[in-house]
Write a structure and sequence with these properties.
mainly alpha; two-stranded antiparallel sheet; 4 helices; 2 strands
Length: 71
């Protein structure tokens, strides 16, 4: 969502925290670069909102041995 503040410069872009949490869920296989591009924001802006909302990129907790067994 774009917020027009009436100040000079680019309008502020707001990211929905629910959408961001769902997009960064472990079962969603999307890179930060692709997600930022799809949202129309810069990667740094995406990282800023992730940090602000406490959202992290988490990977599976499979051990190397379990992963080898799956492959």
């Amino acid at each position: 969502m774009v917020v027009h503040t009436g100040l000079p410069g680019q309008p502020r872009k707001r990211v929905d925290v629910t959408f961001l949490k769902e997009a960064m869920a472990p079962h969603c296989n999307i890179t930060l670069t692709k997600l930022a591009g799809a949202m129309g924001i810069h990667c740094n802006t995406l990282c800023y909102y992730m940090h602000t909302y406490g959202i992290t990129c988490e990977f599976s907790t499979l051990s190397d041995r379990d992963l080898d067994m799956l492959v």
